[in-house]
Design a protein that fits this description.
Layout: H1 2-9, H2 15-31, H3 33-53, H4 57-71, H5 76-90, H6 99-113, H7 117-125, H8 136-153, H9 161-177, H10 183-195, H11 199-210, H12 222-236, H13 239-255, H14 263-273, H15 277-294, H16 300-304, H17 307-425, H18 429-437, H19 441-459, H20 463-468, H21 487-496, H22 502-509, H23 513-524, H24 531-539
Helix pairs in contact: 2-13, 3-4, 4-5, 5-6, 6-7, 6-8, 7-8, 8-9, 9-10, 10-11, 11-12, 12-13, 13-14, 14-15, 15-17, 21-23, 22-23
């Protein structure tokens, strides 16, 4: 881990080129803020869901602390609300006597974040005994953070000296209470040197820590470290390296969806001094947007110092816009002159082209008319061809089924003849007379109709469904269980085959003409198409 961090923050002779690459990378991360925002909201929503599902106040208190960590640099008002929730929950937490004090420290941090320094200071003053207990480091950190905010916010600067003196004392105490060589010791000692006006000593400590194998290096926030080093380089006047480290810090802030940050603002200030006012304007605008979204009133005073950056960028853009307008006007004038010359040159040629175009238009009109006629003939031929192909297919099907039915009737007749011959041969005259006396037309007709239904539906499998689409819902006809067609469907099946005469249909189906007429009239009365067109529409089904 320490190798990765050292490699990330190592200085190189090509710091300017590296700084430009980092600025491009930062621009890309700012353009992807919405993606980082969604990831942040997903983490928050997950913690809120876990909070709702927690089984007791102890579990809820632990989840609420995690939720506070997510909000404390993201939305100060919500962080303040979560801190209040933690204070309420801490009263019923079992087995953790420090829970109420942890909750108060969170409240102090949230109050400082929203700019309520007096209440934050009062809350910390109400817990003096924490400076010697297990929460000593966290308590002193909160005091240092509050004193730093008061020191930076105090105007005029001559009155801020008392806060700086206290800060030096707290930083010194915290560095002495930390283990030698750890990040906490390096951080507090280096910040003490910066307060005392010794930025080089502070930088030596930071860079020395980066090159060491510190045991707590895995716990360090790289954004914080990069910001502190960049700030130190800025104090030393090394703007190139300051840009390098502040850009790294800002990239980490944007990726983690931190809205309460300083690195991007300080970077904008340096870039404005270096002449990159356009990028500085974008960074300041991004900072203002994030501070507004976070409602971090403790950061507002720092943005106030950056207002000249916005003004400079605005003036620069105004000047560029004015220059661009001048160039555009000159370009348009030149273009107008060139266009006038070209217009004169082309005017005479256009006259000849217009005459030729009119002749071509007439030819094209004639060709288009001929093409339309040819397309119509082709369409008619295609329709006729399709109908002929369908007719040939149906005829082939009918012939096959006709031969099959004839073969069946021949076979049935031969079987009947053989049966009578056997009965006569053995002298069963009475049985022969009984067999011959039975009416066969009804049975044969039923078998014939069943065979017809099967053959017709094999050729037109969707006939029943398509036929019913021509009828109103209340008049639709469906075969009963065990049958393929009803008498009405069978009549219109023959109509589909081209047999429209009721007398022929009656003879084919062994119905009376009046019965066929009644069936047809009853069906047509429920049709949703005109009665005169009904038979034609039936013949066109599945064409």
């Amino acid at each position: 881990m320490i190798i990765l961090i050292a490699g990330c923050f190592s200085t190189t002779s090509a710091c300017d080129a590296e700084g430009r690459k980092l600025l491009v990378k930062l621009d890309r991360e700012i353009s992807r803020k919405d993606l980082h925002e969604r990831a942040k909201r997903m983490r928050i929503d997950r913690l809120r869901h876990e909070l709702d599902c927690a089984i007791d106040d102890s579990a809820r208190f632990g989840i609420a602390r995690e939720l506070f960590d997510e909000y404390k640099n993201y939305s100060m008002d919500t962080a303040l609300s979560v801190a209040g929730m933690c204070i309420e929950l801490s009263r019923s937490v079992h087995g953790d006597t420090l829970a109420p004090w942890r909750a108060k420290l969170m409240m102090a941090e949230a109050l400082k974040g929203v700019g309520n320094y007096d209440r934050s200071h009062a809350m910390l003053d109400s817990m003096p005994f924490l400076s010697a207990g297990p929460l000593r480091r966290e308590y002193l950190n909160r005091y240092c953070s509050l004193l730093m905010s008061l020191y930076e916010a105090t105007k005029p600067r001559s009155e801020a000296g008392r806060y700086r003196s206290k800060l030096v004392e707290y930083r010194d105490s915290m560095s002495r209470m930390s283990a030698p060589g750890t990040w906490n010791q390096v951080l507090n000692l280096a910040e003490k040197y910066k307060l005392l006006g010794k930025p080089q000593e502070a930088l030596d400590l930071y860079l020395g820590y980066l090159n060491s194998s510190a045991p707590d290096s895995a716990e360090i926030c790289t954004a914080t470290m990069a910001h502190l080093i960049g700030e130190t380089y800025q104090m030393l006047g090394d703007k190139n390296r300051a840009i390098n480290y502040l850009a790294r810090s800002a990239i980490q802030d944007i990726r983690r969806c931190t809205k309460k940050y300083v690195a991007l603002q300080e970077l904008a200030y340096i870039l404005n001094e270096e002449g990159d006012s356009e990028r500085a304007y974008r960074y300041i605008t991004c900072s203002l947007s994030d501070i507004k979204a976070c409602n971090a009133r403790s950061r507002v005073y720092q943005i106030a110092d950056m207002v000249p950056v916005i003004n400079d960028a605005f003036e620069l853009q105004t000047q560029r816009t004015a220059r661009n307008k001048t160039w555009v006007i000159l370009s348009l004038l030149a273009l107008g002159v060139v266009s006038a010359v070209m217009l004169l040159l082309l005017k005479s040629r256009n006259r000849r082209l217009n005459a030729e175009r009119e002749r071509l238009d007439r030819c094209n009109g004639e060709l288009e008319e001929m093409k339309n006629r040819l397309d119509g003939l082709i369409a008619e031929l295609k329709t006729v061809n399709d109908r002929l192909e369908e007719s040939n297919h149906v005829k082939e099907e009918y012939i096959g089924y006709l031969f099959s039915m004839c073969a069946g009737y021949v076979d049935d007749t031969e079987k009947f003849r053989q049966q009578l011959a056997r009965q006569i041969k053995v002298g069963q005259i009475k049985e022969v007379e009984a067999t011959l006396s039975k009416p066969m037309r009804a049975a044969s007709m039923k078998a014939f109709l069943s065979r017809f239904d099967a053959i017709f539906l094999d050729i037109f499998p969707d006939f029943v469904e398509e036929f019913n689409k021509l009828l109103a819902p209340e008049g639709r006809i469906y075969p009963p269980a065990g049958e393929l067609l009803t008498p009405e469907l069978r009549i219109y099946a023959l109509v589909r085959l081209g047999i429209t005469d009721s007398t022929k249909i009656a003879a084919f189906l062994n119905y009376s003409p009046q019965t066929v007429y009644n069936y047809r009239m009853r069906v047509r009365n429920t049709a949703i198409v005109p009665k005169k067109e009904f038979a034609t529409r039936v013949q066109e089904l599945m064409t």
